[in-house]
Amino acid sequence: MLTAILTDIHANREALAACLAHAQEKRAQRYAFLGDLVGYGADPGWVVQTVMEHVARGGIAVQGNHDQATVQGGSASMHAQARQVVEWTRSQLAPEHLRFLEQLPLTQQSGHCLYVHATAADPGSWEYINGTLEAVKSMHATQCRITFVGHVHEPALYNLSLTGKISSFVPTGDSSIPLSTQRRWLVLPGSVGQPRDGNPAACYALFDDASNELTYFRVPYDHDLAAEKIRAAGLPPALAERLLEGR
C-alpha cells in the first residue's frame, strides 16, 4: 500500500491542500497524519475536518502537542503569544473537532510501522528527535521496523543496523530511498504547514510497503496567501513571516 505521511500541518490550509493534491497525483492509497493538525495557522477548522474525513476512510492520525494544548486550553505558564494562538484556535473549532483532537491516540501501529508525533520512547513527553541519541532511544522503544515521527519540522532519516550502528541522512529536494528490511528506520518527513529548514515549500513523504521505498517531496504552495490569512486573523505577525522564510 502506498501511504502518504503528513505531519505538523499547523492549520495551514494552502499547504495541506497542495500536499494532498500532489499525493493524489502520485496515487496514494492511504494517508497518515502525525499530529499537530492545529496551531500557528489560520484554518484549523478546515484542516481538522479534512483529516477527520480521511480517518473515516481508513486513514491514520495521532495527537500532537499543539492538538493537546488546544483541547486543554491555554495555561498561565504558557507564553502570552502561544496562549493567544491556543485560545483563538479553540474559538474556531466546532465541538466535534475538539472531540476528535481529544480522542486522538498518541501512537498507532499498522503492520511493521509505528506512527507517533514525538518519540516512541515516551510519546507524551513531546521530546524532540534532534540527533542520533534520541533516534536510537525511540527506535529501541518499539518492535516496529519503521517509525514515522513528526514534531521536528525538518526532514531527516535515521537507520539502525543489526549490529547497532546508527547513521543518518538529510534529504534534499525530492529524494527516493529504499528502506532495507535488514535495518530499523526512523523517518522524519518534515512539516507540511511550517517547514523550518530554510525552504518554504511544504514537506511530506510517501511510503510504499510493497517495495519498501520511501520518497520525500517538497511541494510549493501559496504561502503568501497563508501568511496573509494569519495577519488578517490577528495572530502574531511572526507566524506569517516564518512561512515566507521557511524558518
UniProtKB/TrEMBL annotation:
This is Metallophosphoesterase. It comes from the Bacteria. Transmembrane segments: none annotated. Belongs to the metallophosphoesterase superfamily. YfcE family. It comes from Noviherbaspirillum aridicola. Residues 1-208 form the Calcineurin-like phosphoesterase domain. Pfam families: Metallophos_2.
